[in-house]
């Protein structure tokens, strides 16, 4: 690669993010031993006539032979398909003749066991993204329950996963209270201990729905981190993926050695966009406080241990009135500013829901995402910023390109 082009693995990853993979018997067979996708494959009318089915489970993540991790996106009519089988090996084939060896992230044995009280361990609040275990036993986000001046919910506009639905009951989560359910904690600890004992988990990431009181949210993450460390015998690195937290909670998390990194997701750059895209975060914490909390975290955890996830592409929603060049320029400016503060952004591709009928929709999004990743790679190079392998690597980042780009650059030095 040159500094102005993306490396091969990153380009392929983008291509598959956009194109997806069409149905094949091999893809269906892989689902029997692979970690299952949260989204089933939905057959097109033509495929329904051929298969007699309307949907099917497919694998969640595939890996290339260089370990690049890619989410499996089932798309009828995609130019890619999976061929082969478990014994001979799977291959990813494009209609233009490209043919690559792949494998699928497996369903680990621990996920097929149950807790002492009979719950499948797979439902105990520990999930896997490659070599990262994500822990979430309080998924309901209070921002969904608050209303803004126009009567709209204060949830982040892109978020569906924080809805306080039946999962709140599943984990005995009490809205408005920071304390975790002892039963949910015990089940999570059993699942996590089993996952760590089986091997392959290299990072732990704590997440949960937000609370309208950031101090209470901090109390919840302190309790969660203590519970996690109680079974983390080999001290696998732990990241706190809460909302921004006040200083006293940072002191607890750092002073007690409960977490190694924090990741307070700002989601978008610029106060105006933040207020529109994340009205709950703006109302209950505020943009200025969010940035200050990231800076305060740097003073405690040190450079390289403070992160913020960003939703790349939401700027292209029609109501924000930006073309892709303006959106990419704003995002790159934000990346430079955040890095200068010591907070390292990580960008996940977002699919805008508006404007999809526009003829050049995909091309704008693609150009934006490439320009952002190239611009941000330049900033990392110039400022000497490195994403810590203790936080995120190419083995877990399935919707982000930074680790693939940095890895390719390092191999050319
Ligand atoms: S803070 Fe925003 S992104 Fe996080 S769970 Fe709540 S609504 Fe979703």
UniProtKB/TrEMBL annotation:
It comes from Thiohalocapsa halophila. It comes from the Bacteria. Its cofactor is [4Fe-4S] cluster. Residues 127-386 form the Radical SAM core domain. This is Radical SAM core domain-containing protein. NCBIfam families: variant_rSAM. Keywords: Iron, Iron-sulfur, Metal-binding, S-adenosyl-L-methionine. The keyword Signal does not apply.
């Amino acid at each position: 690669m040159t500094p102005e082009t993306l490396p091969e693995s990153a380009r392929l990853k983008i291509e598959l993010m956009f194109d997806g993979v069409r149905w094949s018997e091999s893809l269906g067979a892989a689902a029997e031993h692979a970690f299952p996708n949260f989204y089933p494959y939905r057959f097109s009318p033509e495929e329904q006539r051929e298969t007699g089915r309307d949907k099917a489970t497919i694998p969640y993540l595939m890996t290339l032979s260089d370990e690049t991790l890619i989410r499996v996106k089932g798309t009828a009519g995609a130019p890619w398909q999976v061929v082969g089988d478990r014994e001979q090996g799977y291959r990813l084939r494009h209609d233009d003749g490209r043919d690559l060896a792949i494998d699928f992230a497996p369903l680990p044995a621990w996920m097929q066991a149950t807790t002492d009280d009979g719950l499948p361990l797979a439902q105990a609040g520990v999930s896997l993204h490659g070599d990262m275990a994500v822990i979430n036993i309080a998924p309901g986000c209070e921002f969904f329950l608050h209303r803004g001046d126009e009567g709209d919910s204060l949830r982040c506009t892109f978020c569906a996963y924080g809805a306080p639905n039946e999962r709140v009951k599943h984990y005995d989560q009490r809205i408005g209270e920071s304390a975790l359910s002892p039963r949910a904690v015990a089940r999570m600890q059993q699942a996590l201990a089993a996952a760590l004992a089986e091997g392959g988990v290299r990072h732990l990431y704590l997440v949960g729905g937000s609370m309208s009181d950031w101090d209470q949210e901090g109390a919840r993450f302190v309790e969660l981190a203590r519970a996690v460390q109680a079974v983390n015998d080999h001290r696998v690195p732990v990241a706190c993926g809460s909302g921004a937290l006040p200083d006293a909670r940072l002191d607890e998390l750092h002073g007690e050695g409960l977490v190694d990194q924090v990741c307070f997701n700002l989601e978008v750059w610029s106060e105006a966009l933040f207020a529109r895209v994340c009205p709950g975060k703006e109302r209950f914490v505020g943009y200025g406080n969010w940035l200050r909390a990231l800076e305060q975290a740097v003073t405690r955890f040190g450079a390289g241990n403070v992160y913020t996830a960003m939703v790349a592409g939401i700027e292209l929603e029609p109501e924000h009135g930006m073309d892709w060049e303006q959106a990419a320029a704003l995002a790159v400016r934000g990346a430079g500013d955040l890095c200068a503060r010591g907070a390292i952004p990580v960008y996940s591709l977002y699919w805008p829901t508006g404007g999809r009928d526009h003829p050049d929709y995909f091309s704008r999004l693609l150009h934006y995402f490439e320009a952002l990743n190239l611009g941000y790679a330049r900033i990392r190079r110039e400022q000497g910023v490195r994403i810590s392998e203790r936080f995120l690597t190419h083995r877990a980042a399935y919707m982000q390109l930074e680790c693939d780009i940095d890895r390719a650059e390092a191999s050319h030095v």
